[in-house]
Amino acid sequence: MSVSTFDEITKSDPEKSLVEPLKKSGGRNAYGRITRRHQGGGHKRRYRKIDFKRVKDGVPAKVAAIEYDPNRSARIALLHYADGAKAYILAPARLQVGASVESGPEADIKPGNALPLTNIPTGTLVHNVELKPGRGGQLARSAGSGIQLVAKDEGQGVLRLPSGELRRVSLACRATIGQVGNVDHENITGGKAGRSRWMGKRPTVRGSAMNPVDHPHGGGEGKSKGGRHQVTPWGVPTLGKRTRRKHKESDKLIVRGRRRGKEKR
C-alpha cells in the first residue's frame, strides 16, 4: 500500500461557509433498487463547493490555504478575495500559500490565474477548461492533468488533451493557467481490500466465477474463457465496446481522435 505524503496540505478543517452535506445513495434509486452495483459504505464526506467558473474579474485574491478534498483527486486552494469573499479553486502545481491569483482578460500568465483562451499564448499548459463560455470548467480537473493550447484559428483554439485528442474550443472559453497539482496521485496503490471499502467501493465478483443462470460468462467445466465478447450480467457489450454516439454534434470539433492520437505518438 502507498499513500500520499500530504506535504502541501496547510489546513485540515474546511471553510464552513463553503461546505454542504453529501448524502450517500448506496447505489440505490428513489425506489430503493440497486441501479449502480458495487457501491455502498465508505467514510462520511462533506462536499466542498468549488468555483469552476472564475468570473470574479479584476478582484485579486490571496491563497489562504491548500486543503484536502475527499471528493476529488486534486487538492483545493482556499482564496480570500480583496472584497472579503471566499472561494475554493483547484490547486495548480507549485501554487503556494500567500500567492496572489486573479481572473479576467487582464490577468497575468501565471499558475492559478483564469482568463479566456484568446488571451493565453499558444503552447501554454492549462486546466479547468470550459467547453462553452460561461458554463464552467469541465476539462482537465483531476490530479496531474493538463491541456496544451496548440493553436488559434478563426475564433477557436486547438487543445491537446491528456488522451492525445486534438479538439477545438471557442477562444471565449476560460481556462486556468498551469497543471493541476498532486501529480504523484497516479503512483498511489490501494494495497488492500479494506481501503476500497473506505472509499465506498464494494467487492466485485467475476462473471466467469458465476453459474450460467447468474451471468452470460458463467458455467463451463473448470475455468472458462467465456467464449464470447465481454458483456454485462444483462448481455450488454462492455470492456472496450465504444459507447460514443455516432454522428454526435461535437464530432466536427474533434481534429484528431484520442485513439489515432495515441497511435501516432
Structure at a glance:
The protein has helices spanning 193-198, 258-264; strands at 19-21, 46-48, 61-67, 76-81, 86-90, 100-101, 114-116, 125-127, 129-130, 137-139, 147-153, 156-160, 166-170, 174-177, 254-256.
How does this structure look, described?
The chain has 265 residues and is mostly beta strands. Helix content is 5%, strand content 23%. The chain contains 2 helices and 15 strands. The chain has helices spanning 193-198, 258-264, and strands spanning 19-21, 46-48, 61-67, 76-81, 86-90, 100-101, 114-116, 125-127, 129-130, 137-139, 147-153, 156-160, 166-170, 174-177, 254-256. Strands 7-14-8-11-12-13-15 form a 7-stranded antiparallel sheet, with helices on one face. A hairpin with a 4-residue loop joins strand 4 and strand 5 (86-90). The longest helix is centred in the C-terminal third of the chain and has 7 residues, at 258-264. The chain starts with 18 loop residues before the first strand and ends with a helix. Residues 261-265 have low confidence and may be disordered.
Portion in strands: 15-25%
- Give the neighbour order of strands across the main sheet: 7-14-8-11-12-13-15
Sequence of secondary-structure elements:
EEEEEEEEEEEEEEHEH
Q: Name the poorly predicted regions.
A: 261-265
How many individual β-strands?
A: 15
